[in-house]
Structures are given as structure tokens and as C-alpha cells.
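Lesson 9: reading folded outputs for more than one chain in a single document. The general rule is that every protein is listed as its sequence immediately followed by its C-alpha cells, and records are never interleaved. Here is the first one.
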Amino acid sequence: MKKTIARTIAAAALMGVALGLSGVAHAEVVGDPDGVAGYNVEQSYDDCALMSAADVVGQMTGNAPAEEDVINFAQNTPSVAQPGDMIYDQGQTDDDPNAGTIFKDLPIVLAHYGVKGQYVGGGNMDSLMGVLRDGGAVIVNLNAETIWNLDGDRTQADHALVVTGVDTDNGVVHLNDSGTDDGADEQVSIDTFTAAWQTSGNEMVVTS
């Protein structure tokens, strides 16, 4: 999914948190959101999961593949999770319901670029943070309307993005989000993130 209007996250509240830290030692953040923000690239198609995979390949290898290269691989590689389909269907129109990526097949995409990944169903914040603490990367499947604070169906997972850090002291999750033009180190509250993530049953793909 790609957002086509300005982000409406409660930035003012987050800014207030940041200003409140003035003159005080910064809380430790699990992950490295500043260090990996540069791997986020805005998506051109309905390929948020593939762009998240490209972001993670960049984090793990220092060399992120181009969007068209990842698309070419995924739309010509059979799905393991859904036999008979390809990993990615670009679709015929912007609102084609069949367009998109089979999330469970993202480890195949990562492996193509030399990165070992694993699909995890039913994750939680502790396991997600453990991956980041160990230097790994995390892609999650969640609801975009909740993350972007937009009207619409907030009950279905319809977007993938990369979690780059968690600040439990300030209640903030750091994200790389290809679905918006300012998605590098996008920040939302932990409550907002967990509400969006639970719509997929807390699916994630993590690197070893």
C-alpha cells in the first residue's frame, strides 16, 4: 500500500517528547534508526513488502537492490506459501485487489540477495526487540490506516514496513516506511504500532 496524502501522525506529541528531553541524557533505543534511515526509498508501485526487503538487504549488506530489480525477481519467482502464484503481482491498475506481495515469501527474496530471513507468525514486542538488539532487521505486516492515522478499514493488514528501533522509555517505535515520501525514520507510539500490527496476527520476517 502507498499513501498518497500528507502524513497525519501526531508529530506534535512526539516533538513534545523530544523537547522534554532537552538537557537530559537520551534514553537508549533498541536498534539503530538513525544509522539505517538512509536505506528507506519511497515505493513507485504497490510493492511495499519488496521495498521493505530491499531496505533490509541494504541494512545487512550495505548494498540495497533497486526497486525494478527486486520486482523482476519476485514477479518471476513462484511462491512457496501459495503454490501456483508468483511472489509478486504488479497488478493491472493502482487499485487491483490482486496486486501485491505474498508476505510469507519474503525470506525467498532476502535469500536471493544473500540475506537469511525467517517468517514468524504471532510475534510480540519482546521478540521483535530481541532481533533488533542482536543486530538483526525486522519487516512487519500491519494496517496502514492506523499507522498513518487515516480514515478507512483499520481491521485488515494491508501494508509492510521495516521496524528500525524501539524506545520504550518514550513509548516510540521507529520505522522505515516506503509508503510515504517522508517515511525514513517515521515515528509512532508503541500503542499505535501494536494496534496496527495485531491486524496481521503479529506477522514479521526477521533476519538471523
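And here is the second record, again sequence then C-alpha cells.
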Amino acid sequence: MGALLAGRAGHVDASLGLTPAAELLSIASAAAREAGAVLLEHARSAPRGVGSKSTRTDPVSDADRAADALLTARLRAAFPDDGIVSEEGERVAGSSGRTWYVDPLDGTVNYLYRIPQWSVSVGCADADGGLTGVVYDPPRDELFSAVRGGGAFLGERRLATSDVSDPGLALVATGFSYAAAERTAQAGVLARVAGQVRDIRRAGSAALDLAWVAAGRIDAYFEVSRSAWDSAAGDLLVREAGGAVTWTEHAEIVASGRPLHASLLALLRASHENHG
């Protein structure tokens, strides 16, 4: 594994046996797998400690908290000078110039309903943007990873985004806000988009949606996103798989293969204008 990671990221630091970026990826990958194991173990019994966050439909459970505690502990131990921003409350300012963005369980609603579409997302960024990213899918044991400048991978297989260019042939994923009023507005925009693409998918894990764009399993993804932990790893995955990512004036992340990107952005902007 170490040789593979070093090969992706370039020159090897002899003192570590890994480049700095590959060291980040190695530790993030191991931590994500550990967190996934914790989540699978919690899933063997009835959910505990279920509460809500931003709205009553935005849940958190003991499983989220346990995975978060493990991830943040591993990152603090390995990189004590790095910042950490976690969905479950960790906010640590660092001095290294790097910050970790952690979503210990992306797709909590799916998890609580026993729908096997949820993930662990760990991304690291510096002043130049995304540096490394991992999205781990525990139910399928699939690890998506990327290092800036080193490509995106599923296991050892290099990923590439879709080459679809016609929105009418594009399979497009999306998601919705936990706030009812915003969700209603988003549904209005989606209604205008749905008839102009191949079909819509709403799977319930933003990080996995982005990983699947990187893997070419879906052609594009868009969603209002205001939390870096949802997208930090997936954004880098798409870019390193040859795709494009745009953050729009509507606070949306739009990710796709490059041939589709401009026309998809135009379609979404027109849909917002018509809905407004």
C-alpha cells in the first residue's frame, strides 16, 4: 500500500518512506476504514442516542459520535499541528496551514433506516485547495482516494469521469436541504431540470455522489452545500478524475465530467431563474 501511495504522489521522502501527501492519504485511509468498522458494528444493534441538529429531520446518533471521536483522535495524534473541522462539532485551529474536514457518517438518515448508502468522508486542504481526500463506503468496502496532482482511485484502479456531453443523456444526482422551505424551493428547480436530463438520482450521501461522479457511475451531481465536510474529499476526487467542479452563486456545488459541465451549469442557472 505504501509503495502504491508513494507512486501516486511523486518524490519519496526517505525519512518516511512516503511523500508528505502520501503520508496524509495513508493515515486518512486507515482512519476512515477504522471508522467504517465502528459504524458497521453499531449497525448490528438498534440505533442509540438519536437526536437532531439543524432541524428535526437532521439526525445524529451515537454511531456518528463514535466514528467522529475515532477519526479526530487519529488525526490529532498523527498531525497535531493541523486544523480539524468535523460535522459533529470538532473545531481545532491549526498552525501547519492544513485543515482536515471530517464527516464521520455522511448519510445518517440512510444509516438509521438500514439503507446501505452511507459513507465516511475525510478531506485535507491547504492554502492551495484540496490536498488529499478519502471517501469510504463501508457496506461495499470501497475506498475512493485522491492526492492533488496524483489522480483519483478506487482501490488501485485509476478513476475517470464520464465523457457524456449532452445533458439529455446525463444521469444526474442531487440532494435536498433538511430545512423544509429550502427543500421545497429546491424541488421546484429540480422539476425544471428533470425533463431535460436522462434521469435524476437522489441516493442520500453527498460524499458518495461525488465519488461516483469521479468513478463515472453517474454523469453529474449538484446540491446546495454549505458545509465543507460534505464535499472536501469528493471535490478533490472529481477534479483528480479529470472532471470539473463549480461552486455557483446559488451556493450549489456542481460536479461533472468536463464535456458536460458548461451546458449543465447553463441548465441549472436557467432553472433557477425560471423558478425565481
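What the second record shows: The chain has two domains: 2-158, 167-275.
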